[in-house]
Sequence to fold (504 residues):
Amino acid sequence: MLKAGSEFKNSQRNIVILLAILVAICIATRLLFMGRHLEGWDCIDFALGLHDYDIAHYQPHFPGYPVYMSFCWLVHLFTDSDVLTLTIPGAVLGSITLVPLFYLARRMFTEKVAWLAVFLFIVNPFCWLQSEKALSDAVGLFFIVVSAQLLFYASTSRVNALRYLISGSVMLGICMGVRLSYFPFVVLWLYTLYVLSRYDKGKKMIGYGVSAFILGTCVWLVPLTCYTGLKPLLVNGFNFTFGHFSDWGGSVATSQNVLSRFSEFVWCLFCNGLGFWCYDTSVIRILPSIIMGTGIIIYLKYSGFDCKTKFITFYMLPYFLWVLFGQNLEKPRHVLPLIPVIIICISAGLARLRYFLLNYSKLNIFSHKTYSIYNLFIGILIVSMSIISIKIVYTHKNEPVAQIQLLDYVEHNYDGQSTRVYCWETKRLFEYYAPLLDARRARDVDDMQYDVNSSLDAPEVILSTSKVSGINSITNNAKVVVEFKNNRYVNNPYHKLTLYDLSY
Fold:
């Protein structure tokens, strides 16, 4: 007994040491390939919020991301770089995510499945890229995976269920202060409460769970309300939510072709998120796509409707529906929370394949060859995904995105006193990097024309980007100046921008 206990402790210690080493490697690689610029509207919102926190002026946008910003303010004490300040929290917590991922996968399946899931997570191009961007997504992912791990522990444990429930509920409540758009995971929490309601003292456990979730939410909501005031917070929240669903948010309300949205979702999840092959990617993706696809198929075929499957369903389905109908699918980062659990499912499917091959090898003379083929495929999967990821993050580090290219071109080739630029989200980048340039936001050609006609002083040079809707319809009055491109797997939808001159 003593020997067995000692071996168990040594095993757990070795697991902790190895996970710590992998986390350190993860953080180092994320920081090594981090971008050099703030790449989009949200990034600029966060950067402005570092220096002057004001939700009413979208510094940052609603709900103010107070938990993420708190991490950033802490980092900002040690560096003056806005890019570094906004990136480090995601690089660190995005890397630490592999720890709860390991324990969740091990609890659901086996330790072998857990280790495979960890390595697939480390080399996943999408998770790697998002952990080195100046955004809150990777931080939010950490809190989601931690809460999912704790809630699954709660739903499958009799002895410590209450402790896991309270911890998971608090973490989920805090997560809402990182990314409020992750609210569909509340359904997973409600499912856990339902499972626990059938336990002894179930009503008491539900009360503790609800209280813990409220506590986690109050950690960020109370200070935020005290800072902004209740009425301004509610007004700003209503206006932002209304605009998201009716105007600029990219939800089904503004893009109603459901078939097209589903196609875009598939691309976001599989091609961008998991690294599957697509027509515009390298052939190196084909074999890992087949291997991962095989893992998914085997998992779906042999998974019964047990507690694991129910938990995964309540994790995946609500958020899938939210992204499909309520989010802007032009921005693939919205599918990020789905990736870790899919990686676990792939790992479980491949482990099942290993089991089949092991049993098959016992029945034939090629036993060692059969099992070696499996190891070879896993090795190919890890190595090829590493190559794919390194290529993407190297591009992210060394090649400015199209918006930055456009901004630099205008700044170096046009006189700021006599030039006006009409654009969409790029306006925020002009405000941050080139505040002396006259950049104005215009949704379409009509907005642009109205602004030009209502201006007291007409500029000598009028420029427009291709993101101004309808600009292609007036090509007779517009001269194409230059086109800027970058890898759309690095920055979508602004991977291609055309600059037009309307002044001649």
